[in-house]
Design a protein that fits this description.
alpha/beta; 6-stranded parallel sheet; 2 domains; 15 strands; pyruvate-formate lyase- activating enzyme
Length: 372
């Protein structure tokens, strides 16, 4: 049995593993995903998880299944694995990240009852992130770079999605799809060439995006972009290695809106060293960007606030003492991004929660008084 886990689902994953072991004591349970990749020992120590698939599982998990079916009790020959043997946690040699993503098969969507899913079309055109924001583990998880599938390979999956499964809405969930301009032009033109009438969205950064790129993605069906702005203060952005300025973010959001695209903006409260006044600058920027009137009928801006949460694998988590952070709990159920699980050198738990409530209340007030 394989169980995938993120920080928000890890505790439930362990509960599922415990139930499986109780019902089928002889079953082998493997767990994978970002959370256990960086802290595998906690899952293995429970006795309910026999192996942890580290980093990418495309090759490691099938190899582990074959080893189990073959009766192998100590699969140490399989790269990319952590497992228990006689009460000891053993790490096999690391498995290199997959360079040629085109050789991987498309997801076996025929095994799912897609009609039961609200969002049926999620597509990754690549893996990894070339940036190094200290609060995020995506860069480390993907080797600090963006490995991209060929445009032809992506288009083949999109054709299958549209013509075999009837999907007409999709989300590209690459960490930053609009990274390579040449590639995004090729992808968008390919979508139009194949007459794929998709409405689609993607994730992007706040860096300036050329007008030609925005026009191109819109012409191929893009209806909205999600952007992690994180803070309204340049000092905070520098401290967390965001590599973007407030003014760049402001210009980018307005550029998308002026071209009629929807925008969802993400902000974080409680960055290392952030003061209450810097948080309020973030709140003011969120209000400004959500109310900025474009020159066309663009959809309203959606704003999402969350509380800074220390994710295993992130630089912030690994340098938490150096950054003056105090983690308050190791109960992963509470890592929900809506409740503070750490204090900073500048803000206590209660202050972070109050600022979060202030942010959401200010936004609700602004939305109620706006004339749509």
């Amino acid at each position: 049995m394989g169980i995938s886990s993120f920080v928000t689902s890890f505790a439930n994953g362990l509960r599922v593993a415990r139930l499986i072991k109780k019902a089928l004591p002889g079953a082998k349970v493997a767990m994978g995903g970002p959370h256990v990749t960086f802290i595998p020992g906690e899952a293995l120590a429970t006795g309910d998880v026999d192996a942890v698939i580290l980093f990418e599982g495309d090759e490691t998990f099938p190899a582990y299944v074959q080893a189990v079916l073959g009766g192998e009790d100590e699969p140490g020959r399989i790269p990319g694995l952590a497992y228990r043997a006689e009460g000891t946690i053993i790490f096999s040699p690391p498995r290199p990240l997959i360079e040629d993503l085109d050789r991987l098969p498309f997801p076996a969507r025929d095994l799912f009852r897609l009609e039961r899913y609200r969002f049926k079309g999620n597509v990754a055109t690549g893996r990894g992130c070339p940036y190094s924001c200290i609060f995020c583990a995506a860069g480390k998880l993907g080797g600090g770079r963006y490995r991209m599938r060929s445009v032809d390979n992506v288009l083949a999956e999109l054709v299958e999605l549209n013509r075999r499964y009837g999907v007409d809405r999709l989300l590209f969930y690459d960490d930053t799809l609009i990274y390579n301009e040449k590639r995004i032009f090729e992808l968008c033109r390919g979508i139009r060439k194949h007459n794929l009438a998709f409405q689609w969205g993607c994730f992007a950064r706040g860096n300036r995006v050329p007008r030609e790129v925005i026009e191109e993605i819109k012409a191929s069906g893009c209806t909205g972009v999600s952007i992690g702005i994180e803070s309204g203060d340049d000092e905070v952005l520098r401290r967390v290695k965001k590599r973007v300025s407030v003014e760049e973010c402001r210009e980018t959001v307005l550029s998308f809106r002026k071209n009629g695209l929807g925008v969802k903006l993400f902000f974080i409260i409680g960055h290392p060293g952030e003061t209450a006044e810097q948080v309020r600058k973030t709140i003011r920027l969120a209000g400004e960007l959500s109310g900025a009137a474009p020159d066309c009928a663009a959809p309203p801006v959606i704003v999402d606030f969350s509380i800074m949460t220390p994710l295993p694998g992130s630089e912030m988590y690994e340098r938490r003492e150096e950054l003056g952070l105090r983690i308050l709990t190791d109960k992963w159920d509470r890592y929900n991004f809506n409740d503070p699980v750490m204090e900073t050198g500048a803000l206590r738990k209660e202050e972070i929660k109050n600022l979060y409530m202030e942010a959401t209340e200010e936004l609700c007030h602004f939305m109620q008084t706006r004339d749509f």
